[in-house]
Amino acid sequence: MKVTIFGTGYVGLVTGACLAEVGHQVMCMDVDTHKIDRLKDGIIPIYEPGLEPIVKANIDSGNLLFTSNAEEAVSHGQVQFIAVGTPPDEDGSADLQYVLAVAESIATYMSDEKIIVNKSTVPVGTADKVRAKAQSKLDERRVHLPFSVISNPEFLKEGAAVNDCMRPDRIVVGIDREGETRGKVEATMRELYAPFCRNHEKIIFMDVRSAELTKYAANCMLATKISFMNEMANIAERVGADIEQVRQGIGSDPRIGYQFIYPGCGYGGSCFPKDVKALISTSKQLGYKAEILESVENVNDRQKHKLFEMICQHYGCDPKNPGDTLRGKVFTLWGLAFKPKTDDMREAPSRTLMEQLWAAGAKVQAYDPEAMDECERIYGNQDGLHLMGTPASALHNADALVIVTEWQSFRAPDFNLIKEQVADQVIFDGRNMHEPSQVMDKGIGYYGIGRGKAI
Ligand code: UGA
User: Angle of helix 243-251 relative to helix 208-239, nearest 10 degrees?
Assistant: First the structure.
């Protein structure tokens, strides 16, 4: 089947590569000509395990094409995916200008029937706006062409996106039109996704608004689990309990489950913070106060300050007014990305921490297996930032070690080296990667999340 994808960001590129991998003829379109030129040469703009080989293989097989020509893109696919960004507006609501611009492009160039599929995470009701935008362009052109607008949200996780796309838990498709058109659109979507449903049916058909809300409900539920656990961790600290034992105790109940109950220094990334804010904003516009979601967000904002608070507690200063206590101190940061297996630093807890450390006059020596270039891009000229080539070199002449992202390579560090290099012999572990007693047995002070105070 011939498919066009607008937007070669995370979602668009992974979806395009995976659809090409199963044999569809995919054309990916982006207005960024530089990006398209590089993609044509197989140069991937993001770090995502497993993506580069399938992009290259499918460029070679001819199944994956790239263009920055909208007319060519529209004429290619019977199915037209919109997978462009929806960055948050100032009030937290999703900015739809790019989505609507694609709708307009499709209607400008289409000359036969199209199925327009919204893959971007968009507020409930956006399909109606896309339909209206496309229809007004067609009216302006004075042409009568049938088209459908449907919703097919994505559930990819950065770092595991190719696997999630090739082996989805579910494929949500929201279609509104009744009668013959609906049947035709359903059949096309079944055919498109048939290669991903070989063992059992994974497509869940529903109406468009329910599909749009499903995406937000899923992310908000996951964000809620995390904020809930962070709240429990803060309570655990105060009552003298260990959140890691509590986590195992509750996760063993299958109704709760082990996933997404890891406490830490706050959730980040391009999805949870944005989607929680957007649903709060949608609810507000409709006169409903989304109290749980507001709390989820507030707890997360507070949690992103947690590492700095632990540091201040250790050095005996007030986090709101640390004075000169931290001035000149050197903090090693292991991990900059918002989570492992990505180079993405959007809304990453490392950013909150670094900015607080710099404001207090401290220095940062940071190492991340993938996010160094991204850090350089964001904070290149920042005084007090040194990007180091290895985890060990980042320890050199440091006063304290802070673990911000749980990369596998930080799991079994050389504690003797840490003790030798880190002057104040203390680890602030924002991801509970280590057992406090094991670290303390080596003579190193340890602070974790929800695990009591350092000894
Ligand atoms: C998330 C969802 O998991 C995907 O299903 C969804 O498709 C995607 O958003 C999206 O909307 O595009 P992603 O943001 O890539 O995926 O990352 P996650 O693995 O969900 O992690 C998000 C954040 O939660 C990270 O900062 C992570 O460190 C944090 N987290 C996760 C915790 O603090 N504790 C946990 O137990 C799990």
Answer: 140
Active site residue 28: no
Confirm whether residue 51 is marked as ligand binding. Answer: no
- Concatenate the DSSP letters of all residues of 73-109 into one string: HHHH-SEEEE-----B-TTSPBP-HHHHHHHHHHHHH
pLDDT computed for residue 454 by the predictor: 44
Give me the domains of the chain, ranges plus CATH numbers.
2-206 (3.40.50.720), 216-301 (1.10.1040.10), 304-447 (3.40.50.720)
> 39: annotated binding-site residue?
no
Quote the DSSP letter at residue 194.
G
Would you tell me how many other CB atoms lie within 10 Å of the CB of residue 452? 17
Q: Is the pTM of this model over 0.90?
A: yes
**Is any atom of ligand 1 closer than 6 Å to the C-beta of 134?**
no
pLDDT digits (tens, 9 = 90+) for 73-113: 999 999 999 999 998 888 878 899 999 999 999 999 999 99
314 lines ligand 1 (CB under 6 A): no
Interface confidence, given as ipTM, is 0.97
Identify the residue whose C-alpha is closest to ligand 1 atom 31.
Answer: 260
pLDDT in tens, 313-335: 999 999 999 999 999 999 999 99
Q: In this predicted structure, what is the pLDDT of residue 199?
A: 84
347 lines ligand 1 (CB under 6 A): no
How far is 210 from 267, CA to CA, in rounded Å?
26
